[in-house]
Design a protein that fits this description.
Number of helices: 13
Number of strands: 0
Distance between the termini: 54 Å
Largest sheet: none
CATH topology of one domain: Serine Threonine Protein Phosphatase 5, Tetratricopeptide repeat
Order of helices and strands: HHHHHHHHHHHHH
């Protein structure tokens, strides 16, 4: 019993020492961050987060500060991953405006990422505004129309001529405009080895969910979660939408 107790005490002592070391490492990371030394700050936050032995509140601080550091370096994907780990999507939206746009004012992708965050927060009006400023490509237009549907608004004109509705992403645009059907989109996507399979499953699945059709939307979002592994934004939103579908729905 004494030997077992001694072993337990030694283990507890080593655990406390490790936590103390990580706490010190966190403070070093915070110091570098406040000094504007982003490279060293991120390196120390990496060490703390990899150790994983701080209490949940301090781990959230590490993720949040590392996320801010990534934003200052323009690394939006890495930043949002940290904000999500900290459970602070509202702060991420605010910081994208305060930090990223001030540092990289000509980058429309920042608006697009802000739109995605507002989408996850179910702030569809704000998401629509962000998507409208996040670019003029087909993807931005498709997101705008999803937001319109969620808000009960009609689909906006595309603004470009669909010269050939078989050239991607024109099949998706035609579907959203009511000029094509689901099968035509999926058939077109199956004929390519590129990202079309991911985009077709994602945007058609999202369209169904936006119209309240979970039965049609859920399997397509599951396919998107599988096919969109190389597309961080679509993968993140696919998983988010699936988490929001009640257990047992649409089986």
């Amino acid at each position: 019993m004494k030997a077992r107790t001694l072993a337990a005490l030694l283990l507890a002592g080593s655990t406390m020492s490790a936590r103390a070391a990580s706490y010190n490492d966190l403070n070093i990371g915070i110091f570098y961050f406040t000094q504007g030394d982003l490279n060293n700050a991120i390196a120390w936050f990496d060490k703390v987060i990899a150790a994983g032995d701080l209490n949940p509140d301090l781990m959230r601080v590490a993720h949040l500060d590392r996320g801010k550091a990534h934003l200052y370096r323009g690394e939006v994907d890495a930043a949002i991953t940290d904000y999500a780990a900290a459970g602070r999507l509202e702060v991420a939206v605010s910081d994208l405006g305060k930090i990223a746009l001030r540092t990289f004012p000509e980058n429309p992708r920042i608006f697009f990422e802000s739109g995605l965050l507002n989408w996850q927060l179910r702030r569809y009006e704000d998401a629509l505004k962000d998507f409208s400023r996040g670019g003029s490509d087909a993807t931005s237009w498709l997101w705008q129309q999803l937001a319109n549907v969620r808000l009960g608004k009609p689909v906006s004109p595309y603004g470009k001529d669909l010269v050939d509705e078989k050239i991607w992403p024109n099949p998706l645009v035609a579907f959203y405009l009511g000029k094509s059907d689901v099968q035509a989109v999926l058939t077109s996507a199956q004929q390519s080895q590129g990202p079309e399979a991911c985009e077709a499953a994602f945007f058609v699945g999202q369209w169904h969910l936006a119209h309240g059709d979970t039965i049609a939307g859920k399997p397509l979002m599951q396919k998107a979660a599988s096919d969109c592994r190389s597309d961080p934004s679509k993968l993140r939103i696919s998983k988010f939408e699936l988490e929001k579908i009640p257990e047992g729905a649409a089986r």
